[in-house]
Amino acid sequence: RWLAPQRPGAPTLARPVVAPDGAKADIRILDTRERLPWAGHSARHAMGEIYAEIARRRMTLVFVNTRAQAEMTFQELWRVNEADLPIALHHGSLDATRRRRVEAAMARGELRAVVCTSTLDLGIDWGDVDLVVNVGAPKGSSRLLQRVGRANHRLDEPSQALLAPANRFETLECLAAVEAATAGEQDTPKPRAGAIDALAQHLFGRAVAGPFDAAQFEAEVRSAAPYADMPPDRFARCLDYVATGGYALRAYERHARMRKGADGLWRLSDPRLAQLYRLNVGTIVESEMLTVRLAPKPTRAGAASGGAARRGGRALGRIEEYFLETLAPGDSFAFAGEVLRLNAIVEDEALVSRTTSDAPKAPSYAGGKFPLSTWLAKRVRALIADPAHWTALPPQTAEWLDMQRRVSSLPRPDGLLVETFPRGARHYLAAYPFEGRLAHQSLGMLLTRRLERLGARPLGFVCNDYSITVWGLDDMGRLDLAGLFGQDMLGDDLEEWLAESALLKRTFRVCAQIALLVERRHTGREKTGRQMTVSTDLIYDVLRAHDPGHVLLEAAREDALGGLLDLERLADLLARAKGRIEHRRLDRVSPLAVPGLLEIGKESVQGEARDAILAEAARELVREAGG
Asked: Helix/strand/coil (H, E, C) string of 453-464?
């Protein structure tokens, strides 16, 4: 009964925006004619309307947030492209030659639209781009202005933009982004303190450049803003690490990379280390990538002999290995604007051939995560809590919020709404912090630990940028929610979780490569990703056991807490909830909770509830067998 009927509509809700630099833009939020989904990220419902906008324009940039979205959006636009308009695809995993061809075709005015990621956020200054479409929420006012600014580089003519939210939550975020841009608010992240691993690499590079005085170099490092307030002993600890490897590794000659001479200056212990540095310098650590290469469909004999590898054709681009390992030979996936069949994975190449499929998989990438910005989180909470403001929203979204108000309650800007309800044989707890996926992911890990300790028998959780949902075997509404969401969660619970999880080890792998503790490239050879993982994991275990205060373990912890866990926003969330939790006990799922239940990426909990389910399943099997 909650489904809104289809009704006539059009791209409406135009907002004039003046950027901080004085540039003007007209930004519209799509009021779709179709039913706006409650969940999902494909925006498939809007493709016909986006295509109609493309057909009316000379040149349109269709921005998406991830490479997987780019592939899906391109396929959907071609599906409705009855006029065979020239539409191209552009993202960072495509082969550089293909990207340059698309850019050249844009410059010549041969394309009507390009589906792209942030690879085209900058540097597009052709006046023929007269519309920017953003599929999904822009995730921040700065990103929105950057993308809108790609359109209409002509004197006294405002940029034209259309936002096409993929679901109803994203409609709220789109409006919040437009209003933040109108108010001139920038959502640039707070400056981060200088990273330990980057400092260690910089010290190594300074030694490569020639002998140096440690005190003078420390003063130079501290003159840079990120390192101005670093702890007093940090430079000395990094210097010791680069010179010896640290307490647990100083016995190994390969880690002795610098020495102090009689003149008091530090220099390389072996000139050959300069070549090692030059081969491995850099702070971007990519996931293991495989080249996607066109090849003929293999015969049975050819596939068995590996002959297909020798007949590989041109490269289409690169995809992360972990996605390709989820496919079996014969599976299809969308990439480079085509539907491809996986023939085989041979060494560092995925050999593919063109095929047809109604449901190809879309490549997923570890980098495809965009947490909701702090500015937008505050604005979204304020927007939901103010029904008078809903007139600026598409009617379908306003109706959805009104249903939530009648069925349950609306989240308050200065508090935390928590709902509990049964569904099937499970009990659910849904909370609405609006603090972004990373903070919610961390909250879910810590909440389920507490629930397990309280005997609530949790089974799993799922989160998105707006909410978190936990489910289990017992009614969680009977618990003390103030204690459950207590700020002490970031004490012992956090430490215990970090000690048990593989998060720190995974972060250490990156820090170890940046700090050049392990080198991927050597003259004439290169280690595989698996070899790098084995090396860094072994060193991690040694350091945890024998040198727990090692500077790179500290670096891994800081990176995990700040980046992967978003600890600062999680702390703000718990502080905001203290004494201001509104609990609604419901007899069924609420409208705001539905998107969470439909979210992909559910995390399971291995605990008492899982054991109880397995025990009951075993007893059922025994009963069926007549035992």
From this structure: HCCCCEEEEEEC
Gap between the Cα atoms of 519 and 81, Å rounded: 48
Residue whose pair of structure tokens reads 């041109």 in the numeric block = 314
* CA 357 vs CA 62, 88, 338, 352: distances in Å: 24, 20, 10, 14
Indicate the pLDDT class of residue 550, thresholds 50, 70 and 90.
very high
Instruction: Identify the CA nearest to 357 among candidates 347, 372, 345, 342.
Output: 342
Q: Which two tokens stand for residue 48?
A: 């016909």
Only one residue has tokens 């269709």, namely 62
Check pLDDT > 70 for residue 153: no
- The answer to whether the CB of 505 falls within 8 A of the CB of 542 is no
Please count the CA atoms within 13 angstroms of the CA of 432 that sit on its side-chain side: 29
**What percentage of residues in the chain have a pLDDT greater than 90?**
53
Q: Measured at the alpha carbon of residue 144, what is the angle toward residues 366 and 468, in degrees to the nearest 5? A: 50
Q: Which of 330, 29, 11, 13 is nearest to 170 (CA)?
A: 29
Q: What three-state secondary structure class fits 375?
A: helix
Interatomic CA distance for residues 332 and 312, integer angstroms: 18
227-283 pLDDT, tens digit each: 999 999 999 999 999 999 998 898 888 899 999 999 999 999 999 999 999 999 998
Count of helix runs (H) and strand runs (E) in the chain: 23, 22
CA distance 592 to 486: 24
Q: Which residues pair with 25 in a beta bridge?
A: 17, 159
Residue type, 387: P
Question: What single-letter DSSP state applies at residue 46?
Answer: G
Instruction: Give the list of residues 6+ apart from residue 217 with CB closer than 8 angstroms, or none.
Output: 203, 206
